[in-house]
Amino acid sequence: MFEKKSKDVTFYEAECFKIDASKKTVHCRSAVGTNLDGNGDFMLDYDYLVVALGATVNTFNTPGVLEHCDFLKEVEDAQKIRRSVIDCFEKASLPNISEEEKRKTLHFVVIGGGPTGVEFAAELHDFLVEDLVKLYPAIQEFVKITIIQSGEHILNMFDERIAAFAEEKFQRDGIEVATGFRVVRVSDDLITMKSKSVGEEVSVPYGMAVWSAGIGTRPVIMDFMQQIGQTNRRALATNEWLRVRECEGVYAIGDCATVSQRKIMDDISMVFKMADKDNSGTLTLKEIYDVLEDICLRYPQVELYMKSMHMLDIADLIKGAIGDAHKESMVVNIEEFKKALSHVDSQVKSAPATAQVASQQGNYLAECFNKMDKCKEQPEGPLRMTGGSGRHFFRPFRYKHLGQFAPLGGEQAAAELPGDWVSMGHSTQWLWYSVYASKQVSWRTRVLVVSDWTRRFVFGRDSSRI
């Protein structure tokens, strides 16, 4: 990626274990000792820092999870899972293993029914029924996959039609879906879960367990949040320009951060004063229209609220708040203005922890850095409602949801796309293939990915142990 840009970029493969905001330095540690003293530690100074460390696994302090479960976060996790699956089949093939032990060894449990857990269960099912059972035909009857989900349905962040379709497909495929159960502890051979409806505990034997039940904060991020006073949070809080609050020159994107959209009711008096250019104590529709674009840029929940209420214009929003005496003149005072916007902040929502959010944030931040000098002279952002006059240098970051996919195995997928369009089946899987390939960073990686798919179609998946 850096070669294509022909820019002066230096890359270090090292772990950042501390961020010192007061001294504007990051403390790093290489996996191989590169310093003179051999410990691999070094420091880097920065003018601007972008924190994009992602998240770690959240076990919710469930006993035994870290010791006995596999995870889906790092490349090393994928290699470990691959080895574990092959080892389970090899162990179950031994002549001195009882049928009961074979059923336990070939019971693969996925804890967490979100998109990641569902996609993994589907891919694992395809790998087992399309490839491994051909190599181990004598034990295929003992193979079982179970998904444990604490909610009432899997894929509960998708449209309910997609959740129902996925559950029906998994039932046909023989994948057991245990909903309404919360895992309370994991031992080396048993998973104990508790029914949320009746409170009864159930223990199930397993051969391999994969934990995909949530994300947590990395220790280096927790330490950084302690430094800057952002305690008792799950992620770094940034403003709408992705700058970390209370920290100059530090930006954060991806799963390690969350954008804190400012509420308009917190600034309503300043917004009113800014719009009231003649200081009359009232606002006309013209005065509101003059600053409407800036208000919608700074507080996008205003526009979202009007769309959700099927309002065509700001005038529709104002009419519902003013008294009959003002309806002819359409002039509002501060109290009527507050009343009109009182429910707008209900549309403030956090962006999901997905790759497309991080990708859009990275593109946005790169554009801001590239045009920083130009925007300091010619600001393109909205008027400053608080903290001074003039305009913000940049437009705030706006996440644009492009839809989400859930591959369900058997060359079928489900998609929820903008415009409330829901698609399911084989055609959606091909749509997923095209989107996935198009999102690769270069033509080289696109060709490699497509060639891997082609090789899998022709020859099957590689079952060698890494």
From TrEMBL:
Compartments in which it is found: Mitochondrion inner membrane
Main location: mitochondrion
Signal peptide limits: none
GO cellular component entries: mitochondrial inner membrane
Entry EC no(s): 1.6.5.9
UniProt catalytic activity: a ubiquinone + NADH + H(+) = a ubiquinol + NAD(+); a quinone + NADH + H(+) = a quinol + NAD(+)
Keywords: Calcium, FAD, Flavoprotein, Membrane, Mitochondrion, Mitochondrion inner membrane, NAD, Oxidoreductase, Transit peptide
Class in the EC hierarchy, top level: oxidoreductase
GO molecular function terms attached to this record: NADH dehydrogenase (quinone) (non-electrogenic) activity
Lineage: superkingdom: Eukaryota
Lipid bilayer topology: Peripheral membrane protein
Family: Belongs to the NADH dehydrogenase family.
Annotated protein name in UniProt: NADH:ubiquinone reductase (non-electrogenic)
Organism this protein belongs to: Urochloa decumbens
